[in-house]
Design brief:
- The chain has a domain of 89 residues: Orthogonal Bundle (Multidrug-efflux Transporter Regulator, Chain: A, Domain 2), CATH 1.10.1660.
- 58% of the residues lie in helices and 5% in strands.
- The longest helix is centred in the middle third of the chain and has 32 residues.
- The chain is elongated and about 65 Å long.
- The protein binds FE2/S2 (inorganic) cluster.
- The site of FE2/S2 (inorganic) cluster has 10 residues, from helix 5.
């Protein structure tokens, strides 16, 4: 990984890409989503502050554990004066995201277990296939309309 001399205060997109391991296209995407920012030179080239390295590392680490970009952006936006996340910020945010991850892992476990029933079936029935209708929307609609019907009768 190329080293950046300490006296360099700004990075080109290529330097940021090489140092962070993120593709140039990913950096442009992050910028379009408001996760990082740059200034433009007189020749309209992007220049990033050195703190962009840490922001990119933060974004990539959060993405690796499945945190949506919108959630990451909201977390970054909540930091005072949009500062780069510190070690303490990362510790706090990752702790908050842990319960979200636990819930997602639990849900994936349930879906995996139901997938076993689907293997070799292929019906994708909204009435019987849990993966086609994971929240049992049809069942809720049926019981809801039955309840409404019962209320009307009464
Ligand atoms: S595909 Fe038939 S039960 Fe899921």
């Amino acid at each position: 990984m190329p080293q950046i001399p300490v006296k360099v205060h700004e990075l080109t997109v290529g330097q940021l890409s090489a140092r962070s391991g993120a593709a140039v296209s990913a950096l442009h995407f992050y910028e379009a989503k408001g996760l990082i920012s740059s200034r433009r030179t007189s020749g309209n080239q992007r220049r990033y502050g050195r703190d962009a390295l840490r922001r990119v590392a933060f974004v990539r680490a959060a993405q690796r554990v499945g945190i949506p970009l919108a959630t990451i952006r909201d977390a970054l936006a909540e930091l005072p004066e949009e500062r780069t996340p510190t070690r303490e910020d990362w510790a706090r945010l990752s702790e908050n995201w842990r319960s979200e991850l636990d819930a997602r892992i639990k849900q994936l476990g349930r879906l995996r277990d139901h997938l076993t029933d689907c293997i070799g079936c292929g019906c994708l029935s909204l009435e019987t296939c849990v993966l086609s209708n994971p929240d049992d929307v049809i069942g809720e609609q049926i019981s809801g309309s039955r309840l409404m019907g019962e209320k009307r009768k009464g």
